[in-house]
Amino acid sequence: MLTSGFRRLITLSVILLCATLSSVTDGAGAQEAATNRDIAVTSYLDTSSAGWAYKNFDYAFVAEAGECRIQWNVVEMKEPGEKKHLSVRRCCSLPFSEQIPFHRAILKEIFTKWPVTEFDNISWGSFGEKTDWSWSVPIAVASSKSKEFKDYRENYPNVRININRLFVRLANETKSYEDLRQLLLEFGADIELSVVEKVFVQPAKDLRFYPALKEQGVNAKARVIYDVGFSYFNIKKP
User: Fold this and answer.
1) Which range, of 29-38, 72-81, 151-160, averages the lowest pLDDT?
2) Model confidence at 41: pLDDT above 90
3) Residue 185 confidence (pLDDT) above 50
4) Mean pLDDT, range 76-89, rounded to an integer
5) What sign results for the dihedral spanned by CA atoms 86, 25, 18, 78?
6) Partners of 232 in beta bridges
7) In 10 A of CB 160, how many CB atoms?
8) What's the CA gap between 181 and 122, in Å, rounded?
9) Which pLDDT band holds residue 10 (cuts at 50, 70, 90)?
């Protein structure tokens, strides 16, 4: 079970990490590394992460090149009976499709040390990125057709639906994160979005990826759901 306390710890850790990362400028280096079969992964005990009073350990696994730094943390809490958690930090200018070799190299290292069955969830962060909104497009399109979201807009703040749960349902129904799911399936694990925090809504015309929405018939003035601040996936058997 993903507790609210653990989610707060992950949120703080992500903010601290991305605030302290040094800037880099070699985008070509990241693209070159992404096509290299042997991506170097470094690991260390992440003593700079938050919440150590509640943890047995927190190990970081990092792959980076040029403008791309991908970090997965393996966290074991002190609470008896809890499985390990994975948390992901992405400070990368590449679209997710080009980040996959970095993630794959890290996951290979992690699951060599611990069986995938020892993990129960992944903290992923936001869905959208400045260079890649591919996960957001299907959710935005689906929300533009959703009767529940229409009811939410028309009756806010006296609403009957929880917009966080609506985002989760739309993301799962549209399989917006399918590329990440396929990556985890390579290691014998399936995932499903379970919890999100801070849902973002805007008029379609104000979004960077509006041309992709327009192609699918979304009205420019329609307000759509398109992203979240933080997201959490359950890990399960395929």
Assistant:
1) 29-38
2) yes
3) yes
4) 96
5) positive
6) 123, 195
7) 8
8) 12
9) low
d(CA 227, CA 225): 6
Lookup: tokens for 92: 């990368």
Cβ atoms of residues 21 and 69 within 8 Å: yes
Is 232 within 8 Å of 124 (Cβ atoms)? Answer: yes
To 5 degrees, how large is the angle CA 166–CA 169–CA 170?
85
- Residue 15's nearest CA partner among 61, 51, 56, 57 is 51
Which residues share a beta bridge with 42?
A: 62
Please determine, for residue 25, whether its predicted confidence score (pLDDT) is greater than 50: no
Determine the average pLDDT of the residues in 213-230.
97
Supply 216's token pair: 């699918």
Question: Among candidates 104, 219, 201, which has minimal Cα distance to 153?
Answer: 201
**Pick from 50, 94, 95: which is nearest to 75 by CA?**
50
Q: State the pLDDT confidence band at 5, using cuts at 50, 70 and 90.
A: low
How far is it, in rounded angstroms, from Cα 177 to Cα 224? 18
Query: CA 230 to CA 7: how far, in whole Å?
Result: 9
HEC string of 21-58?
A: CCCCCCHHHHHHHHCCCCCCCEEEECCCCCCHHHEEEE
